[in-house]
Structure formats: C-alpha cells, structure tokens
User: Fold N5-carboxyaminoimidazole ribonucleotide synthase from Allomeiothermus silvanus.
Amino acid sequence: MKIGVLGGGQLGRMLALAGYPLGLRFRFFDTAADAPAGHLAELGVGNYDDTEALERFAEGLDLITYEFENVPVETARFLQRLAPVYPPPQALEAARDRVVEKTFFRSLSIPTPLFYPVLTKNDLLQGLEQVGYPALLKTRTLGYDGKGQAKIATPADADKAWEELGGTPLVLEAWVTFEREVSILAVRGRSGEMVFYPLVENLHQQGILRRSLAPAPRLTQALQAQAEEYARRVLLNLEYVGVLAIEFFQVQGQLLANEMAPRVHNSGHWSIEGAETSQFENHLRAVCGLPLGSTAPREYSAMLNLIGKLPEPKDVLAVPGAHLHLYGKEPRPGRKLGHVTLRAESREELEERLEALSGIL
Amino acid sequence: MKIGVLGGGQLGRMLALAGYPLGLRFRFFDTAADAPAGHLAELGVGNYDDTEALERFAEGLDLITYEFENVPVETARFLQRLAPVYPPPQALEAARDRVVEKTFFRSLSIPTPLFYPVLTKNDLLQGLEQVGYPALLKTRTLGYDGKGQAKIATPADADKAWEELGGTPLVLEAWVTFEREVSILAVRGRSGEMVFYPLVENLHQQGILRRSLAPAPRLTQALQAQAEEYARRVLLNLEYVGVLAIEFFQVQGQLLANEMAPRVHNSGHWSIEGAETSQFENHLRAVCGLPLGSTAPREYSAMLNLIGKLPEPKDVLAVPGAHLHLYGKEPRPGRKLGHVTLRAESREELEERLEALSGIL
Assistant:
C-alpha cells in the first residue's frame, strides 16, 4: 500500500518511520526540496495550488493523508477526486480559522475561552470591552508556534497590536489564567473504532511547546473522561479518520478547548517510546483501515523539544532513559530541530532524569 | 553523519529505521536492485568484488558497517582503506568458516560441541568415529537458515550426505541433545564500553529461527553471567565494535557455543519494543562512538518470524500487544518476510497472546 503525505516535515518523517514496519510505502509532497521526509522516502516538490504537480504526486497512491494543517482545503478536495483523503477535508476547514474552530467547539457544547472576531479597529475596541484585559489578538489563520499573535495587557497596548496585525482577519481572545495546559490525542479508525491517549501536560514558552509530561501528573479519571467526551464529539461530528489533537486550558478542574490539530501532534511524540502504540502508527492504522493499537502508557515519559540549536548527541544519550529524535533540519532560531523523550519507572526517577537532561539542553 | 551498510536486507532496513532518529543518513550496498533497504535509503548495486562499485559506494561515507555476514573479508579490507569499517574485518574472518569459528571459541576456553574438519570421504568416516551418531555434516562457509547441512543418523546415511555436500570444505559436528537453544546479544562501543542483552530462548525448525522468548524463561543469574563472560572474551579478543550475537546450546545447565554472527541478529528483533534500547540503535551507537543505551528488557516479549507467506496485517494487529514488522520482500517458500513481536506484562499474559497469534500465523 502506498500512502501520499501532504507536508514533508518531521511529522511526516516520523509517520514514515512508523509505517515502513507495517509494509507501507510513502510519497511526500512539500514546497521545499530539502523537506526532512525526503531523506527516507520519495518527495514531490510543488505549490499546493499546482494541480499538475498534485496530479503527479497522486499517481498510484492508495490514499492520501497530511502532516501539515495549513494545507489549503481546496488542495485536499482536489486530491479527493484522485484518491481517498483522510482525515476528511472538512476537518481542515474546521481547524484552519480560529473563529470557525471556536464556534465549532461551542456548537458541540465544548467550552472555550471568550473570543471576539476582529476585522476593524472598531471591532478590536468593542472586543476588548467584551473579553477584558489582558487579551490576545491573533490572526485567524496560519498561526503556529506563537507566530501571528500579540498580547494586549492594557488599553494602551491596543494600538501597537493593531499596527502589528491589522489588515487581516483577526480574533481577540480572553487571557485565560489556567492551572495548566493539557492535550488529548484521539484516534478514529475507518470502521468507527475510537481510542484515546492519556491527557498530557504541556508547557509552552513564547508560544512554542517546550515540554510535555505523559501521562499528565495528578490526572484524574474525571478529567480524562471529560477530555475523551469532548474529543469524541469532534471525531463523530467530522466523521474523522486518523489522529486528532485538542489542546485545552485546565481552569478550576474544567477544560476549555483552545485549539485542535487534524493530524499527529508535537504533544504526542512521547508515545513513540512511552505508549504501547505510537500516535504515528495509530494514525496510519486508522487511515489504512487496520485495527487501532493500545494507547496504554508505558510508565512515565517526558518529551522535550530541541529548539533553535542542538545539544551534542553523546551528552543526551548518556542520560539514562533518554531517546533522541533529530529531524535532519538546519538549525535556525526558534526552529524545532528534534526532541528527546525521557522514560522512567517512576515520577521521582523521571524528575531526576529531567534534571540531568536540563543541564545539557 | 553518513553510514554505509554492506547488505540491504531486513537487518539493514531496521538499522536505518533506528538510525534516522539519531540524525544519521544511510547508503546501502547490495547485489540485488530490489533489496528491502532500498525503499528507505540510497542503494548502490554491485558485486562484492567490483572495486569500482565499492569505491562509488564509499564516497563521502563517514564509516561503513555490515548487516550481512557473508561479505568477503577482502571487500571489508578494501573498504577499510576508504573509510573506517566496524565491526573489524577480523570478526568476519573468525565467523565465516565453521572450523575457524569453533577453533576460535576453543582458543578462548569457550566450550563447543565436538567437531571434525572434513575434506575427503575418508575424513568423514574418521570423523564419525570421533563424534558418534547422530552427527551433522555442514559446509564450512556460506551456510544459513539450515541450508548446506545434512543429518547423519546412522552409518548408512554417510554416503547420501557425502553425495549431497562433498566436494567443498565441510565440518562434521556432534549432534547435541540440548535442553534448549539460547543466544546473547553483546555490544561493544568504540571506547570499549560493553553492554549485554538478557539471554533469549530460541526455537528453530528446519534450521530456521521460528520464535524467540525474551528474556529466556527461568533465566538464572549464573547462566546470564556465563554467557556474558564468553561474549566478553570474544569482544575483547576481536577488538570488536558493534553488536555481536552468539548462539549456544544449553546442556545440563552449561552453555556450548554453536555459532556467532558479527552483526545485529534475528534473535534480537524483540528488542525494538521489548528493550529500553533496540539492538539496531545500540549497533549504531557503538559504531558511531556514542554512549551505549540500556539493554534492560521492558516486561516480556516473544518474537515470531513470518516465513514463506504473510498473514493478514489486520488479523495480527488485532492481537493485543502485537507489533508487526514487514520487510517489503516478495513471498517465497522458506523466506523471512517479517516478524511479529508480542509484548505482555506477565509470562501468563504472553502465553495467552501467543496462543491467540498462533491461530493466525
């Protein structure tokens, strides 16, 4: 079976690494000729609106999936005429625009932070009255890793934020004082089978994920059940197939949905060593119509992103329980170049190993 | 870092899958253009005595290793002038000929079954007097998976065995009535660091490995210590770098060395899911001069080879704890096409899962 993947970044690379043992073959499509997945599979290069390049890409593929959420919906719909596309394009549509996404969550009775769509400066001022201070002004589309957003702490910040971001559709979001950020990875197969990974606790800095702990410390059954119920509503409504990630703020024991990603997700990388079946393998099992694998965690894991520059591999690998994942990308400030998963038999051991690793990173 | 690998079969494929996350790149060399490793890395095609093809292969490589033990020693020595070669060519030399190999074991005070070199029919008759009945007549070189051997149960079988195999250097080996077959995977790094996986119990049929249990049931510290001591002698004597496998017969609580392989080994495939660090990753860590990873087993594993024909992937994946590994090879009788690793939290659970899987294979 040959799978086409839109996007050839690290997520695609890890999909291929999980898929070869299942006997799958891969072809990637990316705008960059040096995309990391090209090291280990065929890579077609082109723009997402280049129908000729897309047709060449689709030739002989059994199905198409994506690892990049900013694939234009039109591209996915165009390809759907050539091969089955999973997850379904409506999932891209629901996730690509922050206003559409939050409206979608609310339509499923999934709580979200307060938000207000902003097209004009006047919308911004009205929005600030509604959501209060501090607030976050964000582009509705194409934002990632903290790009395309500005904090408005006091009325005086509004002008600067508008200057920075105005002119494109925006959304103003209430600043949430959360206890922590958590995320769930949910998987739905072509037969409708669903499985869920345990919630993980995420730490972001400057809008970029730095660290995940899996399972989330002090995870209660009630919280896990709430997250699974929300994820189930999304999966069913979108007739979803594949892995879906939803990020939540945890506030007074309740979950507020922040955003979702219709793909494998950085906060699920721990599952390669830390779960019985990785998110990458389960995504492939789902889109290929195979039975889903167990999401049970294997003891305790921490995932740390390597951002901007790389440590010496030998230093990382000398830490007990450390597993190194490099993406084959050129170092650049703010760029995700790899990650390390630490595994341990107990929380205490994990803390010790985290401390040892922190000295290196 | 770019690694060259002689041989492009499933072992090479699994080396590459383990090496990409370490940031390594790969180029394989094989006599077959459809070698399985070619699906996911560069593949040079040529004969092992084609020095021009070998020179092209070696260009720009940081080091060279092998996944195929019948690489001619001359090939390895030729390549050594172009890039470092690990494990060292003398390991190929020690392992390629059954008489040299057993003599080498005995020189290190590692017990082996009785054996007798056979060049002529007369040697065979003298040998049978020495080692008794039943005995095994084998080619000294190039044997694998039960090929190139004949059992001599009674004097009457000697003629037939000679007709079948005579004309090439042979060895007559005593038939060992063993309690079981076990093997150890040992790893030595470039710095001299050594680690050892727990002994596994192997079941062969028609000379082909069918199943490994890891760790070996009822494994005592004394038996593990004995195997490690023998492996240590071999590693040190050969100034070995990389993974080495030694197969033993267990007879009355003692180990008799049967053969060794200077490479990653089928009886170590369980380590992908069943150990903290897989044999493939540890081989690469060793040859790259990186710290070796923990060989600690993660609960209980069984590895089953898929030989000759493949089951339906969906049936295999529906068994809890089953991990499928397909090699991308065309089915053919007696050919290793893939393997399944079963993991479980207890021996009892493993037995149940083995039973469920047996119904499918």
